[in-house]
Amino acid sequence: MSVALASRVAHVSARIDRLPAVAALWKLVALLSVGGFFELYDLFQTAYISPGLIQAGIFASGSGGAFGVSDQAAFASATFLGLFIGASLLSPFADRYGRRAVFTFALLWYTSATVLMGLQDSAMGLILCRFLVGIGLGIELVTIDAYLSELVPKAMRSRAFAFAFFIQFLSVPAVALMSWWLVPHAPFGVAGWRWVVLASAVFALFIWWLRRALPESPRWLAQHGRLDEAEAVLGAIEARCAKDAKAPLATPEVEVVPLVAAGRFADIWQPPYRRRALMLVAFNIFQAIGFFGFGNWLPALLNGQGVGLTHSLAYAFVITLAYPLGPLLFVRVAHRLENKWGIVGSALGTVLFGTLFALQSSALGLIVCGVMITFCNAWLTFSYHAYQSEMFPTHIRARAVGFCYSFSRLSTVFSSLLIGFFLEHFGTPGVLAFIVASMLVVMLTIGVFGPRTRNLALERIAH
User: Fold this and answer.
1) Does residue 255 belong to any structural domain of this protein?
2) How many CA atoms lie within 13 A of 263 on its CB side?
3) What tens digit of pLDDT does each residue of 297-327 get?
4) 343, 442 in Cβ contact below 8 A?
5) Residue from 101, 102, 100, 81 nearest 90 by CA
6) Which of 3, 90, 155, 308 maximizes the CB count within 10 A of its CB?
7) Is residue 398 part of a domain?
8) Model pTM above 0.90
9) Is residue 256 part of a domain?
10) pLDDT tens across 56-83, in order?
11) Do 24 and 157 contact (CB within 8 A), yes or no?
């Protein structure tokens, strides 16, 4: 690579990192996050439509299920098996073809699969379609992380992820509220769970239309040698930022950026990425047990504490309000915190409140402890999504993040079955003991092995 070309690549990254955190950038973050809203809406459906599917006689419990286990457990496992395939095998397409193109493709994929799922009448059909939905979601979630980390300056990165997950997590109370209203009923003769499923597909098409306002990642364009395009995209962003700031932009602080357009899987296992990849693989295996073990099974866990179907959906809705509240409270201060310690602190919170949840029998106690577990899970989520996207360089970011992140999906395939077993044989306290033990491993893994990244350029962290 010529010195002149290397200088232009480095200049693109430096120009992004000096951008002010003004309305123009927050608008891009919001547009990207709204796409993620319907992914999480889809992802959290498992917890809220399963009671309706059981009540309708489509899902069976225990050995009466389609695969000899609870259909709810198989449904959750199929979701995460699809997520594993999407994240591990197909996420490299975002490194090869671009963040914007793959974002759009994945959105159309899981929207189509969701419509197909909403038309099924058998447990086997629902589980198969859920697997297909999971593949699209797996591609999309990884692409959004890479996309977002590259679009915003270093001083705004953690705040941008906090704001993004505030918007995305609004989907959780949305699906809980719709399920509370619809799942126990059949409006116009159509089962309530179908309304909940098909609603996400309708709104996702609107997001597909909105995505036209999203530019391609200038960092990705520069790394692929498409420097004229990168500078044109960045120039338009800079013009909007300067207009919002009502002042000239600061002078870029240029750091050397190697140009490596074609990433390989083997690159993940070169120093210093190998240690980071192993750390994130271990982290993702155990954080998924804590996060999805509670989130995907919340109504069932409440049932295990003696709460009926209608009340469990109502309590679950109240508890899920903490999902968007957590990131919102951190938007102003996230940039002052190391993501590493945010992960450790949030996991500690889940340990403490998970233990207390198992001891509750009153509605107030269950709701308060549930809200605090959810708050900590939300804090954990935006912290680690920002953190793992910082660990690798642009040419392998989606590939490496997808590989490491996919282990959280593979973990949940098996932990969903284990949680179903624990719930049936040991009740809610048994499930929560499993979650607490997993979060202790999360704290140890990140606390001991995680590097610091606060306010560092992506290129400096990577190299």
Assistant:
1) no
2) 28
3) 666 667 666 665 556 667 777 887 888 998 9
4) yes
5) 102
6) 90
7) yes
8) no
9) no
10) 888 887 777 777 777 877 887 888 889 8
11) no
